[in-house]
Amino acid sequence: MGSVDLSTLKVVEEWERKAKEILPKGAYDYVNSGSGKEETSTKNVQVFSKWSLVPRMLRNVKTSSLATKLWGVTLATPVMLAPVGFQTVIHPSGELAAAKASDKLGIPYITSTVSSYNIEAIALAAPTTPKFFQLYWPGDDEIAVSFVRRAEQSGYTAIVLTVDTSVIGYRERDLQNQYFPLRQGAGMANYLSDPIFQKKYNAEGSNEQTELIGKIAPLIFNQTLTWEKVAWLKTKTSLPVIIKGILHPADAKLAKAYGVDGVVVSNHGGRQLDGAISSLEALPAIAKELKGEMPIFFDGGIRRGSDIIKALALGADFVCVGRLYAYGLAFGVEGVYTVLKNLISDLDVSLALTGVTSISEVDDTIIVKNT
Ligand SMILES: Cc1cc2nc3c(=O)[nH]c(=O)nc-3n(C[C@H](O)[C@H](O)[C@H](O)COP(=O)(O)O)c2cc1C
Ligand SMILES: O=C(O)C(=O)c1ccccc1
């Protein structure tokens, strides 16, 4: 592993290939795979080729800037790290490495509920850039509120409630490998460090892994969530609440009606409902409902700078990357830093070549659907 000179790894797909070489098969398949026949995860990446950018010329792009504003705060770029759980199955330094690398680049980090380090430790690894907490609403509301409170107290500035995960997707590769990241001891840090969980579910203070998995696993997903619960969550926190996993324009309308503060157009990287619409194809209809009303975040298939410009042109305000940085993490903090740095360099060049001088100027006048 130490023999790879990361500065020479520029081709995005090479990172994926190298990660596959390094990681145990179960871990690589867990990260790489989608659900079912992987139609949606594959389409997420390929769909970008269905649209073409139509660049403008002679527009003095010398001062072109990637800076973007979110709720009055200026961010270095429109890029964020999507919540990715269980990161110690990729590298022992896991979320701490990813958060540290993104912080160094001024890229906001979104901490997953099922992280292998806890909310507080990850906050300390990313002290300078805004960070969000992604909530998988536990089966117990008291724990949900406890997680949110802990995020507030450790300086997170938004809650990202993931709503596409009433149950975990049918992931054939994981099922065939019999690979479940919890069994690697990953993803439990927030539960184990939670006073409400310990009091209500582990009063005898067990440290035994199988026993703890037995207590935590049934709590992770909540099949009873409704829009009313979202409204209830809003009463429990003063932080903005972003809903992650919106694909249908009718749900975008409901998000507005229920007073949410942002949406992430996402199909969970094609890991939940296989056959679901690709994120990019879902984006225009949602932008039609919400553009200008609340920030629109986008994830799914972002691998290069021009992908980001296409998503912004079709209505996104911010994009999140998932697997791209997960592959970098196979090489630890330097790996994450390098993939992100490469992505931002690519975005910088691509924006200038589009003839656009600021992110907020990217709109649907520079994109066409191929015929
Ligand atoms: C290994 C892995 C773990 C993930 N864990 C979470 C999670 O804990 N919470 C969540 O909301 N989304 C999770 N996601 C989904 C991502 O946040 C994001 O929606 C998806 O990765 C975007 O697609 P991309 O990988 O093509 O960039 C995970 C994705 C991967 C690949
Ligand atoms: O892998 C995922 O996409 C994910 O979000 C998850 C969350 C909890 C348990 C298993 C997977």
From TrEMBL:
A Pfam cross-reference name: FMN_dh
Annotated residues for binding of glyoxylate: Y30, Y136, R171, H268, R271
Molecular function in Gene Ontology: (S)-2-hydroxy-acid oxidase activity; FMN binding
Reaction it catalyzes: 2-hydroxyoctadecanoate + O2 = 2-oxooctadecanoate + H2O2; 2-hydroxyoctanoate + O2 = 2-oxooctanoate + H2O2; (S)-lactate + O2 = pyruvate + H2O2; mandelate + O2 = phenylglyoxylate + H2O2
Keyword Oxidoreductase: yes
Stretches of the chain forming a coiled coil according to its record: none
Protein name: L-lactate oxidase
